[in-house]
Design brief:
By secondary structure, the chain is α/β, with parallel strands linked by helices. It is about 55% helix and about 10% strand. The strands form four sheets. It has a six-stranded mixed sheet, sandwiched between helices. Helix 1 runs antiparallel to helix 5.
Length: about 475
């Protein structure tokens, strides 16, 4: 298993991304060679650096982003070969249109029509051949990692269930180990996996089952944890993890019902370097100004549509809780009727909410109602990525009922966040609890690169409408 942003990702997905990045550049080079196969001087002139390097990076980057948005790197999405071909064709088409628009704005990056056509055909051939070859090789030679869970309680079952959901990781749960009283009868099974007797024989079980990773999932460790065996196995190269960290890495969220306060104190993560915070603010300010300018024509159209659809102000101001618990006014395009909460009071948004207007339903689906918040980002009240700000009336309620809720106010709230791209719109106390688990995972692994990954997922929601309400 490979960790990226403290999450387990499929080695096959990582290998595909790396291989196809190289193949996309190779396809462009081969396209130039085939276009000028009988004229070496023209080939040498066409591939001069650094211009050709920028063209290659743009060509490969745009197509890989399109592959990502078409789920071609999600090995959990089980598809037939025909569906993969359709997705590949859609990705190449979308990439070609996007590159055409970029070439129109930046003509210096333009690739000749002949080279572009040949290279795109080669991309399709290279990707198909690579995936056919890798699929065959993966079935034969892919290494399987054997995992042993130390414990048989609810925590151990949670780890096993999360492992079963991640068939893309090439792992095999070999069984559980229980600290067995003398009167216990062994072996017995749990989730169709054997429960082996006694932590005293942990070293022999690990060797017999060829275990490469042990997950410690014992609710009560006092006097029961085989510390000496675990130390020796760890020194021998066996990976030993606590259950809470494993669950977080598998699911992308901190399971508050399983963690103890000490986990927050002693686990890795939650780093906030001054350099990272300053860089994040510089990027927020820069992209906030650029995004406001680029989206201004779209925002004017949305404002006109709202004015024609219903009476009332175009911009809706609402008090939210931000950094260090300070309140500010968040700006949004109005998506509900005027005085929608006059009689009912503050409410969470619901499916098919009757308060939402016709235009409001559309702009909420594609998250376009959030565009005025670029102004909040420029002011420094919000960031591009971070926990979504909540209303004070809900914060007062949630901080009383959910432990660690105020920890999400230790960073600037965001236009989007890990909870927003990983979970549905919050409409209940249970949803707020679940979204806090994702927010805590973000706080634990906060970085500029993680922000970029969240931004890519957000763009997918904006472009497809998936996940909006």
């Amino acid at each position: 298993m490979i960790r990226i942003f403290s999450q387990y990702v499929s080695p096959k997905s990582v290998l595909l991304i790396v291989l196809e990045a190289g193949l996309l550049v190779l396809a462009l080079v081969c396209g130039v060679r085939l276009r000028f196969w009988n004229s070496p001087p023209e080939f040498a002139f066409y591939t001069q650096l650094p211009d050709f390097a920028w063209q290659g990076l743009l060509f490969a980057g745009i197509f890989q982003i399109c592959f990502y948005y078409s789920d071609l790197y999600d090995v959990r999405a089980i598809r037939h070969r025909n569906e993969q071909l359709i997705s590949l064709g859609q990705s190449l088409g979308a990439g070609s249109l996007l590159l055409g628009a970029i070439y129109f704005v930046f003509p210096d990056l333009l690739i000749g029509r002949g080279v572009f056509f040949i290279s795109t055909v080669l991309v399709a051939l290279f990707v198909l051949l690579t995936r056919l070859t890798l699929d065959a090789a993966w079935r034969i030679a892919a290494p399987t990692q054997n995992i042993l869970i130390l414990g048989t309680g609810e925590l151990a079952l949670t780890v096993a269930q999360e492992l079963n959901k991640r068939g893309d990781l090439n792992t095999r749960l070999v069984g559980f180990v229980e600290h067995s009283p003398k009167h216990s009868n062994f072996p017995w099974t749990l989730m169709d996996r054997p429960v082996m007797s006694g932590v005293d024989s942990l070293a022999s079980i690990t060797a017999q089952q060829q275990v490469s990773r042990i997950v410690v999932a014992m609710e009560d460790r006092r006097g029961m944890l085989p510390v000496r065996d675990l130390v020796r196995l760890r020194v021998e190269g066996i990976r030993v993890e606590d259950a809470q960290s494993t669950i977080a890495s598998l699911s992308g969220r901190v399971w508050l019902r399983t963690v103890r306060p000490s986990w927050f104190v002693f686990s890795d993560g939650f780093h906030r370097s001054r350099l990272n915070l300053v860089l994040k603010r510089i990027l927020d300010l820069s992209f906030g100004l650029i995004s406001l300018v680029l989206c201004f024509p779209l925002m004017v159209c949305i404002a006109l549509a709202i004015s024609l659809d219903s009476r009332g102000p175009v911009i809706y101001r609402q008090t939210r809780v931000g950094l260090r618990g300070k309140c500010f006014e968040v700006l949004k395009f109005r998506s509900m009727g005027v005085n929608a909460e006059q009689h009912s009071g503050a409410q969470w948004a619901q499916d098919n909410d009757a308060r939402v207007t016709r235009v409001g339903r559309f702009i909420r689906k594609f998250r376009l109602d959030e565009l005025p918040q670029f102004v909040n980002v420029i002011r420094g009240e919000m960031s591009f990525v971070g926990p979504r700000p909540e209303r004070p009336v809900f914060v007062e309620r949630l901080r009383e009922e959910i432990s660690y809720y105020d920890e999400r106010h230790t960073v600037r709230p965001g236009l989007t966040g890990w909870a927003q791209v990983s979970y549905q719109y919050g409409a209940s106390l249970e949803d707020a609890f679940r979204k806090l688990e994702y927010d805590l995972f973000y706080l634990k692994n906060m970085s500029i690169f993680f922000d970029c990954a969240i931004a890519l997922k957000t763009m997918r929601i904006v472009l497809t409408g998936h996940g909006g309400r």
